[in-house]
Amino acid sequence: MDLNFETIQLSADPGLSMTLLSAPAGSAADDALRLAGWFAARLLPVWPFGR
């Protein structure tokens, strides 16, 4: 999967950064990134505790 990324430093918390990922609209990478986001949004709020 080919993704574009940019990492920014968070000035409020030295040493912390945030990485933003993107893919060209309509590409296979865009579909895969959206699917990964959908999956993470449903899994991570309860991980590792389960439902």
Sequence-ordered SSE layout with sheet pairings:
Layout (H helix, E strand, L loop, with lengths): L3 E6 L7 E6 L5 H16 L8
Antiparallel strand pairs: 1-2
Q: What tags apply to this protein structure?
A:
51 residues, alpha+beta, two-stranded antiparallel ribbon, 1 helix
Protein model, in words:
- With 51 residues, the protein is of the alpha+beta class.
- Helices cover 31% and strands 24% of the residues.
- The chain has one helix and two strands.
- The chain has one helix at residues 28-43; strands spanning 4-9, 17-22.
- A two-stranded antiparallel ribbon has the order 1-2.
- Strand 1 and strand 2 (17-22) form a beta hairpin.
- The chain is flat.
- The model has no long low-confidence stretch (mean pLDDT 87).
Please state how the strands of the largest beta sheet are arranged side by side.
Answer: 1-2
- The overall strand count is 2
Oligomeric nature of the chains: single chain
Question: What is the N-to-C succession of helices and strands?
Answer: EEH
Cα-atom Rg, whole angstroms?
A: 14 Å
Short description:
With 51 residues, the chain is of the alpha+beta class. It has one helix at 28-43; strands spanning 4-9, 17-22.
